[in-house]
Amino acid sequence: MKKIYLCTSWKMNMSVIESMAYAKRLNDFVKEVIPADSMIEIYIFPDFLSLYPISKVLSKSSVRFGAQDCFWEDAGPYTGEVSPRSLKAIGCSYVMAGHPERVSSFKEDVTIINNKVKAILRNNMTPTLFVVEKEKKHEIKDTCNLLEEQLFPMLEGIDEKELNRIVIFYEPSWAIGTSSAAPVDHTRSIIAALREAIDKEYGLGAGARQIFMYGGGVSLESARSIMELDNIDGIGMGKAALNFDFFAGALKAAVEIEKKLKK
User: What ranges make up the beta strands (E) of 98-204?
Assistant: First the structure.
């Protein structure tokens, strides 16, 4: 039975107080709604200022947390940067690398992203890496060729064992920031093709073991449909999940899906 992953990134939208309140409410909700034997993994990406206080709120929780970015060195004269080693020390489980907003706004290139992925792995955290479909093409093959051209340079020097420690987010940019997810059949085809591409690059079976998540505009209905896909592992939410009730609704849907899978 597959494990379902759900996460939300708050970007730069909540104060420390608001973030702590959300984390506490989420922790209480998870204790109440998620069964003790559930394999659902839930994690959040607050801003940097909120990470340490949230580490205290979630110290005994099954809810995990991570950082929206990090530097690629553990220490040194890098004014204004945040060390992956320090993130690990406060309990971060996940760190984003190559988020499309950092690529567009801060001009992060493939080399920077690759170095960050390696730094996150080196510090025993899980990188969340992004591949972005900038426009919906008529042929799935054409789209996948472009996604492969993005993905594999970011994985340069990473072996199969390390690869399967990475969460790969598929994001159709034409759906990000909206409430209209990519069509489910389209998402299924993209993920299937990416798994095949990983098999060709890393060996048969590597693609099946890879964790893939969907990121982009969703409604509760489309979130459920995506989580029900047999070849995707979970879903990440941004703007919509700033509303706690929306994220809670997605978690309830995940619990219902998991119950069906157990039957």
Answer: 126-133, 167-172
* Whether 171 is catalytic: yes
Among 108, 133, 148, 171, the active-site one is: 171
Of 99, 108, 133, 148, which residue is the catalytic one? 99
176-211 residue pLDDT tens = 756 567 889 999 999 999 999 999 999 999 999 999
Q: What angle do CA 200, 117, 62 make, to 5 degrees?
A: 100
Helix (H) or strand (E) holding 9: strand 5-9
Contact at 8 Å (CB) between 43 and 63? yes
Rounded Cα distance between 163 and 208, Å, is 12
pTM for the whole structure: 0.96
Question: Yes or no: is domain 5-262 CATH 3.20.20.70?
Answer: yes
- In the residue annotation, 186 being an active-site residue is answered as no
Extract the tokens encoding 186: 């389209």
